[in-house]
């Protein structure tokens, strides 16, 4: 039976990008269906009734929710090609720890960089830079977070790269000045087909910000 | 079987649901470990060194190498000691189990904490919100003895925070957050849990636990005034 893989996503979402990259890394054919976050489709509500959020991966009719859970699911289901997680339990635990860090700490803060002003925005910037520096010191001088192999932690973080221009523009700071190793790493990731295919254009993301602000009722 | 000497140490806290869930997993697998009670108001050098990023318990030290974040630790334990598996084998079932674990930690726990920490209208709102979330768990339990199916699994271990923390706070907050009329399946599930030896062994003793919850509630209220 041929596998049917559908991904419900929202194009600028840093979460949906992760799942796309994972699918591309494994060479899985999938049907991407763009969703309107502000006008949720019946399919989305049916497939993610608990959170009603994107992305949703639907494999042969069965939904998997939460982007990092999807990445792990993809790795376990289509095992044997381009492993995304290390096979050693300790290395795997480290990868999951950092994925969890990025997942928990970053989203709350990034909105403040383009969506807030004054003190709130400054505080957001400071926290973001601190977090990125923590992650940068974990990366060190490695090619990717897992060493030579591109994987889970890279996938967790790279989706934010297409938002960096927007952060810098609205936050008025240089990410490269603060975290040069992260920028170098991001450029390496962008050379991979799976990443280049999956990340939206930075310019388009930056152009979206005023529209997003309006839709979200942010001044 | 273990050929060389394995050193397993858990930096934990007796009243923490996150620490206890790790103990449940280790005990279920028959892994001998040394428990080191941590004072989170005066963090030990070992804790700070083992979890420099979050500086929180629990931290599992396996042959000196630290693993932090309770859900990550649970999966590490399952990967390392393969007897009595905690997570299901099938990738789809694993994804579902992980989804519910996150739901419990990121939604239920966060909302339930507000029941303990707030007063008046804010507390009432937290009770309502917690109940709405628990209705989803209630649905999951229909026709099952445990969230993991026929036997205790990953989600049950994580959900002990509902059975033995949230539900124990009811005595202290004076509100039946999880009344049996609204949540018969959850109550049935708690009874099933209490029949499992590992659970009985690993949950905090009730009286001391209630005293601790009472004291914490008082200190939280003082902070919010």
Automatic annotation (TrEMBL), chain A:
Q: Which GO terms describe its cellular component?
A: cytosol
Q: Matching InterPro entries, A to Z?
A: Glutathione-S-Trfase_C-like (IPR010987), Glutathione-S-Trfase_C_sf (IPR036282), Glutathione_S-Trfase (IPR040079), Glutathione_S-Trfase_N (IPR004045), GST_C_Tau (IPR045074), Omega/Tau-like (IPR045073), Thioredoxin-like_sf (IPR036249)
An individual GO BP term: glutathione metabolic process
**The GST N-terminal domain covers which part of the protein?**
3-82
Quote the catalytic activity from the record: RX + glutathione = an S-substituted glutathione + a halide anion + H(+)
Q: Name one Pfam family in it.
A: GST_N
Q: Which UniProt keywords apply?
A: Cytoplasm, Detoxification, Transferase
Documented EC number(s): 2.5.1.18
Major site of localization recorded for this protein: cytoplasm
Q: Which domain of life is it from?
A: Eukaryota
Q: Where is the GST C-terminal domain?
A: 88-208
* Entry GO MF terms: glutathione transferase activity
Read off the Gene3D superfamilies from this record.
1.20.1050.10, Glutaredoxin (3.40.30.10)
Q: Where in the cell is it found?
A: Cytoplasm, Cytosol
> To which protein family does this belong?
Belongs to the GST superfamily. Tau family.
This molecule's function is given as:
Is involved in the conjugation of reduced glutathione to a wide number of exogenous and endogenous hydrophobic electrophiles.
What is the name listed in the Swiss-Prot or TrEMBL entry for this protein? Glutathione S-transferase
Q: Write down the species.
A: Brassica campestris
Instruction: Provide the taxonomic classification.
Output: Eukaryota, Viridiplantae, Streptophyta, Embryophyta, Tracheophyta
UniProtKB/TrEMBL annotation, chain B:
All copies of domain GST C-terminal, residue ranges: 90-219
Record's keyword terms, sorted: Cytoplasm, Detoxification, Transferase
Specify where it is mainly localized: cytoplasm
Q: Which residues form the signal peptide?
A: none
Q: Which reaction is recorded as catalysed by this protein? A: RX + glutathione = an S-substituted glutathione + a halide anion + H(+)
User: A GO CC term?
Assistant: cytoplasm
What biological processes does GO assign it?
glutathione metabolic process; toxin catabolic process
Q: Where in the cell is it found?
A: Cytoplasm, Cytosol
Q: Which InterPro entries match?
A: Glutathione-S-Trfase_C-like, Glutathione-S-Trfase_C_sf, Glutathione_S-Trfase, Glutathione_S-Trfase_N, GST_C, GST_C_Tau, Omega/Tau-like, Thioredoxin-like_sf
The residues covered by the GST N-terminal domain are 6-85
**What EC number(s) does this enzyme carry?**
2.5.1.18
* Similarity comment text for this entry: Belongs to the GST superfamily. Tau family.
Q: What is this protein called?
A: glutathione transferase
**Originating species:** Brassica campestris (Field mustard)
């Amino acid at each position: 039976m041929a596998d049917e893989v559908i991904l419900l996503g929202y194009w600028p979402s840093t979460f949906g990008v992760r799942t796309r990259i994972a699918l591309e890394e494994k060479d899985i054919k999938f049907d991407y269906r763009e969703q309107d976050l502000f006008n949720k489709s019946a399919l989305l509500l049916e497939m993610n009734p608990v959170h009603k959020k994107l992305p949703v991966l639907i494999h042969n009719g069965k939904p998997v929710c939460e982007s990092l859970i999807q990445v792990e699911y993809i790795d376990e289901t289509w095992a044997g090609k381009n492993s995304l997680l290390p096979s050693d339990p300790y290395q795997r635990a480290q990868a999951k720890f950092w994925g969890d860090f990025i997942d928990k700490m970053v989203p709350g803060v990034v909105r403040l960089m383009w969506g807030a002003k004054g003190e709130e925005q400054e505080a957001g910037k400071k926290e973001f830079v601190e977090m990125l520096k923590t992650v940068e010191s974990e990366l060190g001088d490695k090619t990717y977070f897992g060493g030579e192999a591109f994987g889970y932690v890279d996938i967790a973080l790279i989706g934010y790269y297409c938002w960096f221009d927007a952060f810098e523009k609205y936050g008025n700071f240089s990410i490269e000045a603060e975290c040069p190793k992260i920028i170098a790493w991001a450029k390496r990731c962008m050379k991979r087909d799976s990443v280049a295919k999956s990340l939206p254009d930075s310019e388009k993301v930056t152009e979206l910000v005023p529209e997003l602000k309006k839709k979200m009722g942010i001044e | 079987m273990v050929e060389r000497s394995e050193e397993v140490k858990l930096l934990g806290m007796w009243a923490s649901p996150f620490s206890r869930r790790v103990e449940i997993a280790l005990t279920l697998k028959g892994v001998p470990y040394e428990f080191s009670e941590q004072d989170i108001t005066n963090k030990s050098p070992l804790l700070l060194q083992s979890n420099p990023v979050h500086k929180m318990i629990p931290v599992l030290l396996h042959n000196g190498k630290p693993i932090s974040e309770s859900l990550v630790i649970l999966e590490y334990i399952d990967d390392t000691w393969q007897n009595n598996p905690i997570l299901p084998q099938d990738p789809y079932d694993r994804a579902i189990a992980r989804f519910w674990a996150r739901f419990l930690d990121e939604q239920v726990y966060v909302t339930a904490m507000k029941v303990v920490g707030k007063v008046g209208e804010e507390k009432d709102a937290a009770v309502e919100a917690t109940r709405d979330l628990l209705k989803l768990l209630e649905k999951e339990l229909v026709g099952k003895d445990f969230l993991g199916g026929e036997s205790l699994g990953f989600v049950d271990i994580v959900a002990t925070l509902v059975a033995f923390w949230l539900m124990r706070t009811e005595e202290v907050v004076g509100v039946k957050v999880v009344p049996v009329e609204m949540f018969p399946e959850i109550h049935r599930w708690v009874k099933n849990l209490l029949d499992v030896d590992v659970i009985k062994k690993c949950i905090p003793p009730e009286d001391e636990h209630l005293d601790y919850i009472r004291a914490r509630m008082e200190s939280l209220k003082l902070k919010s005034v």
